[in-house]
User: Which sequence fits this backbone?
């Protein structure tokens, strides 16, 4: 038990917050955890735990601002007073009385720290990061895996808040920490790579990982290495025929091209995801999309799975351009009985024709049954699946994300059980589930947010501005995380969980530092996470001795 000060008597002490006069030779800093014991008249002792969220220092005995110069010259006798403000996290037993002035305040260590932050009541937990003094900050797994809650939302400025890095750190802890690895060995995760080809090396060790960073992994109880079981998926090269070749530049080995057959496109009703940016629910365009979707499904019903191409009206359609041409030339037949105006039909046709360049290499009629099986994104065979979409046209990105997410939800619906869990990491969430308007992708993301945890589908969503994301997606996240924030954005109501002091600090957070809020704690905790132990770009890949010999 380390006493650091006494409850201050010149500022009010309340049941939920109080001030501490810091003792001479001691100090308290932001994020320190403390406790104070208060005896009641009936003999019961109440222990009040809290986290320091404000620290101040000032002269005692000075009256004017200029007295600071006289004190420095030794002309004015003054004393220095240091005090810390504490926000209460827990009261045991729950008798909400203020601590009395003059009572000793101690730094919470060991068991007391576990109690202060509710770690002692977490039956199942996972490493969420390190505190600033190097101790583990635990997250309650029951609020992540769907037992009592689910989902994570991460917000922060692009390039500084390291949102994707923290999402990967969470997955790494879930899949590799001794407390969770055994239970989660059958769980799966899919992450969409939206920036460069950085995520194509998660299965390679990072050559830039220092010994100090390795020690941080050790203090977390984690091995310092790459992800152990990774599958990499990327779009096929636009000009490839026959055997599909991936379009990636920095890595070819171990990367599987993905594609969908024309038959799948028609029978599984994937057409709406080509119109995912048509976000006006009031327009008639979505009615035209629905009519065309039903037409294609009806025309191809029962057509054999051994063929990637389709028959439409007795005509063989072998590529996506042919499909678009058929719908354009037979628009009267496609929209018969739908009572749509010619302007709406024209808008549908124009948008469909505009999607040919974007997705014709993804939706194909030249796949053999073996190729169709081999190039279908399958997240069940490997623990972590990276789906690269960074180089695709924006319309193609929306198509891939929407189709993959819907297929995952359909698979979990059919499975009927919550376990094994499926984690979905989706960056740029404001693009796929914007606050205003409607789209097929937004509908799927909302379904995951509201119903996913009951099916074992956990969304780890990230965005620069939570204020631009559909409210129901954000509010359904049990874990809220904020990295560096724009000062104006930090004032939005979506960040109310931070409180006044943390909002102010969020504008100066460094990469690798986040504020984490979880349901059991009334205050956010500052967490840090180590430098990635997996390579995040080609030049970071650490080669083994055998690989170095081959490279020479």
Assistant:
């Amino acid at each position: 038990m380390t006493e650091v000060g006494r409850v201050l008597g010149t500022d009010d002490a309340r049941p939920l917050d109080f001030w501490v006069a810091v003792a001479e030779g001691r100090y308290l800093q932001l994020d320190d955890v403390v406790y104070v014991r208060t005896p009641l008249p009936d003999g019961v002792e109440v222990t009040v735990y809290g986290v320091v969220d404000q620290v101040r220092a000032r002269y005692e005995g000075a009256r004017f601002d200029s007295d600071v110069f006289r004190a420095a010259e030794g002309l004015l006798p003054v004393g220095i007073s240091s005090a810390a403000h504490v926000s209460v996290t827990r009261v045991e037993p729950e008798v909400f009385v203020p601590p009395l002035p003059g009572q000793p305040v101690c730094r919470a260590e060991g068991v007391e720290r576990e109690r202060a932050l509710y770690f002692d009541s977490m039956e199942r937990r996972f490493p969420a990061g390190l505190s600033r003094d190097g101790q583990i900050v635990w997250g309650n797994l029951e609020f992540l895996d769907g037992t009592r809650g689910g989902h994570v939302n991460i917000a922060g400025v692009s390039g500084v808040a390291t949102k994707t890095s923290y999402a990967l750190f969470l997955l790494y802890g879930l899949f590799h920490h001794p407390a969770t690895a055994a239970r989660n060995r059958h769980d799966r995760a899919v992450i969409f790579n939206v920036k460069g080809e950085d995520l194509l090396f998660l299965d390679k060790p990072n050559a830039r990982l220092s010994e100090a960073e390795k020690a941080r992994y050790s203090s977390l109880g984690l091995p310092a290495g790459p992800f152990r079981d990774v599958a990499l998926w990327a779009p096929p090269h636009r000009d490839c025929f026959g055997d599909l070749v991936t379009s990636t530049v920095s890595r070819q080995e171990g990367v599987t091209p993905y594609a969908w057959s024309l038959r799948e496109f028609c029978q599984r009703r994937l057409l709406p995801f080509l119109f995912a940016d048509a976000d006006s629910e009031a327009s008639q365009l979505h009615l035209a999309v629905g009519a065309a979707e039903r037409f294609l499904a009806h025309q191809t019903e029962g057509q054999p799975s051994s063929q990637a191409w389709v028959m439409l009206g007795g005509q063989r359609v072998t590529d996506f351009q042919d499909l678009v041409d058929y719908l354009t030339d037979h628009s009267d037949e496609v929209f018969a009985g739908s009572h749509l105006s010619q302007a709406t039909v024209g808008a549908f046709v124009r948008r469909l024709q505009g999607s040919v360049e974007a997705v014709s290499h993804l939706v194909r009629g030249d796949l053999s049954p073996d190729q169709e099986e081999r190039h279908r994104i399958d997240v069940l065979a490997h623990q972590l699946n990276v789906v690269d979409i960074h180089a695709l046209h924006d319309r193609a990105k929306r198509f891939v994300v929407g189709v993959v997410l819907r297929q995952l939800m359909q698979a979990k619906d059919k499975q009927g059980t919550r376990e094994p869990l499926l984690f979905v990491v989706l960056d740029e969430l404001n693009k796929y589930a914007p606050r205003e308007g409607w789209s097929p992708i937004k509908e799927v993301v909302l379904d995951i947010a509201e119903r996913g945890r009951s099916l074992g589908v956990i969304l780890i969503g990230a965005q620069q501005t939570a204020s631009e994301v559909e409210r129901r997606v954000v509010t359904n996240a049990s874990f809220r995380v904020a990295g560096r924030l724009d000062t104006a954005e930090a004032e939005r109501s979506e960040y109310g969980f931070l409180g006044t002091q943390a909002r102010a600090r969020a504008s100066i957070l460094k990469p690798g530092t986040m504020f984490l809020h979880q349901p059991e704690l009334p205050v956010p905790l500052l967490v840090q996470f180590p430098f990635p132990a997996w390579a995040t770009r080609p030049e970071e890949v650490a080669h083994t001795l055998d690989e170095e010999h081959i490279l020479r």
Summary: Residues 545-552 have pLDDT under 50 and may be disordered. The CA atoms of residues 85 and 428 lie 37 Å apart. The longest strand covers residues 45-60. Residues 394-415 form the longest helix (22 residues).
